[in-house]
Amino acid sequence: MALIQVKNLSFCYDGSYEYIFDDVSFVFDSSFKTALIGRNARGKTTFLKLLMGEYEYHGEIIKSEDCEYFPYPIEDIKQYTIDICYEIDAHLQQWELERELNFLEVDSDDVFYRPFETLSKGEQTKVLLAVLFLKHNAFLLIDEPTNHLDQSSREIVARYLKRQTGFLLVSHDRHFIDMCCDHIIAINPTSIEVMNGNFSTWYFEKQKRDEWELAQNSKLKKDIMKMEISRRRTANWSDQVEKSKIGAADKGYVGHMAAKMMKRSKNIEKRRNKAIEEKKELLKDIEEYDDLKIFPERYFQPILISFSHMSLFYENKILFEDLSFVIMNQDRVLLKGKNGCGKSSVISFILNQGVQCQGDYMIGSRLKISYVPQDCSHIIGDMDDFICSYHVDITLVKTILRKLGFSRLHFERRLEELSEGQKKKMMIAISLATSAHLYIWDEPLNYIDIFSRIQIEKLILEYQPTLLFVEHDTFFQESIATKIIDFDELI
């Protein structure tokens, strides 16, 4: 057993007055399969970088072994895959790499002598993971490996990770965490919690604990309110006594008595202020996530979109054949299947983005669509200008972002300085602030933290917008979808 000890860790980025970690201490075992969870921009990737020794910090991080970080940076993606593997680890044995890729269901003969850029995102992830787990005498840090994996690949990678020991994994996919992790480190607003078990166990215990703490906090807040009222009464009484000295017959005597009463009342007020502050210190540190709202419109016809025996083509390549489905008011339709099967192409066709088709289809006239794209690389520039370009209420969008975990400091940054998760939240907030008949979301949860996913699920179930979506998060699929279009059945 090798422990990693964090003692009185404090860290903030240069030029920032906002601490990512402020005097936190905790211990975890490097032999465990541990998931690191928390809100976007709460410090998960930063903590991995601190373990790698890339930033200066205050406090101590005590570890007995070096760390390896995933994903590896690839300088020349045009190189053969096998050459890139040897660049990462010059001492790896090819037979060992082939064995690891076999566990990950990747054909090594197919990928080794292809340029790395020609591999799918899923294949690239699997190859780099295989190299990572051939590193000996190192503690492995795995940062969001699932973002480019379809559901089938997530299952394969989760089973692969379950066979391993000794890693710290950042992921927002609850099902993925449950499959491969046995410990949780949760970064809360001002503390870090370490717990034995998977995500479902941790979250169940957290809900019970939060319910109790919220009840205690409610009682404490009532007590504080009563004490505040009492303090104000004392202060008001002191003011009245001071005023009573004006015009008094024996000003010397009245002044003397008023001074004594004033001193006594000030001491009482001081004690009550101290008691109020002590009560406030007892308020628990709970990860709060306020309810979101959406403003859907009902389409004037029951059917919004229908496909009948449709085939789609892209650059004369057939993507699929004989696709039929209908989207009706309040349907939540999941497009399910492996990467590259044509899910995003269906969305592109509905949005009139140049995909060819054969077959019968109907897209309702005057249909208002709100779209969250998979790719957020276009999100650059000033935040207010970007929001205004979508003709939505800036205040409403920022209110939604606050509920999704944005701090006030994030509103001062240019959009290109935001994390990928924050950029995705920007698009989701704009979509939620848009009044539409149909919401089309293409992998909306990529890079989005667990707590925000829970908020979005609750929102959809409460307001029941008409939704067409692609998403590989199993929990989200099972919670949200009312219809499933499985593209694997079309092949």
UniProtKB/TrEMBL annotation:
CDD domains xrefs: ABCF_EF-3 (cd03221)
Coiled-coil residues: 258-292
Domain ABC transporter: 4-214
Highest taxon listed in the record's lineage: Bacteria
Molecular functions per Gene Ontology: ATP binding; ATP hydrolysis activity
Record key words, sorted: ATP-binding, Coiled coil, Nucleotide-binding
InterPro entries documented for this protein: AAA+_ATPase (IPR003593), ABC_transporter-like_ATP-bd (IPR003439), ABC_transporter-like_CS (IPR017871), ABCF_ATPase (IPR051309), P-loop_NTPase (IPR027417)
NCBIfam families tied to this protein: ribo_prot_ABC_F
Protein name: Drug resistance ABC transporter
Lineage: Bacteria, Bacillati, Bacillota, Erysipelotrichia, Erysipelotrichales
